Amino acid sequence: MPMIPDMTQDMTPDTAAKPTVPSLETLDRLAAIVGEKYAIRDADAIEPYLVERRDRFRGASPLVLRPADTQQVSQILRLANETRTSIVPQGGNTGLVGGQIPFDQGSEVVLSLGRLNKVRRVDGLDNTLTAEAGCILHDIHSAADGVDRLFPLRLASEGTCQIGGNIATNAGGTGVLAYGNTRDLVLGLEVVLADGRIWNGLSSLRKDNTGYDLKHLFVGSEGTLGIVTAVTLKLFPKPTDVATAFVGLDDPAQALELLTIANDLSGRRVTAFEFMPKVGLEIVLRHSTTARAPLHDAHPWYILIEMSGGGEDGALRETMATILEQGFERGLVNDATIAESEAQSQGLWHLRTEMSETQRHEGGSIKHDISVPVSKVPAFVAAARQAVEQLVPGCRPVPFGHLGDGNVHFNITQPVGADKTDFLGRWEEVSAAVHAIVADFNGSISAEHGIGRMKRDLMPMIKDPVELALMRVVKREFDPNGILNPGKVLPAED
Ligand code: FAD
Ligand code: ZN
Predict the structure, then answer these.
(1) Do 241-353 and 363-449 agree at the fold level?
(2) Rounded to the nearest whole angstrom, what is the distance from the C-alpha of residue 38 to the centroid of ligand 1?
(3) What are the tens digits of pLDDT across the range 118-171?
């Protein structure tokens, strides 16, 4: 598969603190902590840890360590800190900005958390779950389900990504509208610091106003401040009533009016409000063998609405019907369907979750993960579309995503028949145009995927200088020798 060029491929790690290439002796000592069986050095076996799944980022490493527990992580970091060995934490390797992939100098050791995969405790009364960082998100869902509770973080990568990775990236997904980002779902953390000390912050408290809330520094820190080894999460009542609808309409502004109606009439039970354009649905229908057209005719835009709550099964379907009727009456909705069964609901969700994956069958895609204030999404989409169509005539903008959160995955598929490499070669230019419009709307160039190595060098342009300086203070204090994921998130200082 050809590499997708991006402006940061040649970036070198942060020069603020230069970790050294580990000696053979250091590598042997690190390997001895986990045992040879879990210290991977063989070139073939190491390969999957060095490549991002979409092959957008590749790196090199002399050693992958797979520790069994928090104590081993602590020993590894103590030794790495003494020997100035760079450590790249890796969870499920589903991150989209290259944070989990080492650079290509071959001097960084990968720390893979997958063996720390025990659910330590589930408490249906406190509504909490404590799990180790390497637990797969899907297994957390199952453990919560076991006590009839919901853990509401929902990502298309949930079968592979790990809760530690979700915390390190402050993952978003399709449940944010009702339950917040990962940050909002965390009560406590256990973290191994750069010098090997273990911070046991696994609190289950809902209220604790005793000074600085340090856990939030680690949430979204992308492995640059500490290694998350365990987490206490919030659980929620499992919905007993769910209604899913697929709606065809003319533009996203109408969709936002419909969202207001839905919130008002349902008592804020809307748990997902996702949007996609006609061209996006056409691509899914063309390339997914299990996808079925949800409505009789095509429409310029589509919305997937999910409402859920604790009432009697079926009640929310009636509420959904009332909402859609009002939408028709006000001229907001062209056509709509409400799922009559769990299978139908899954079929509608499939159309949304396949949106990104199926685009690759159409050639190259230049992708963005941006956010603007919710009310500004329609104007942003119109302006960004116009800008990229002017730059690359014939390109196919596919803006889709979490409309209810103002989070647009502004993907642009290449013109039909164009050369993929030529198109992707314009990534930087096209992104600059999209990001300039994001700035006009006071938005963010990374809504939910993080900074990693991909967007690192944009930080001075998007962050207030005082904020960036404070981030550097935090980094230096937590990791004075710069061994934790160097060269990610923060650019080198001048
Ligand atoms: P990795 O990719 O392994 O690592 C991500 C970052 O976290 C790296 O910087 C790494 O160094 C660090 N890290 C990992 N584990 C730890 C740890 N224990 N301690 C400290 N640092 C650590 N993201 C969204 O936000 N919303 C979506 O809807 C979404 N959908 C996706 C759909 C698909 C098909 C794919 C492939 C990805 C999607 N993602 C989405 C991106 C990705 O799944 C998330 O960023 C996820 O949280 C990463 O988890 P991971 O375990 O794979 O972490
Ligand atoms: Zn998303």
Answers:
(1) yes
(2) 22
(3) 999 999 999 999 999 999 999 999 999 999 999 999 999 999 999 999 999 999
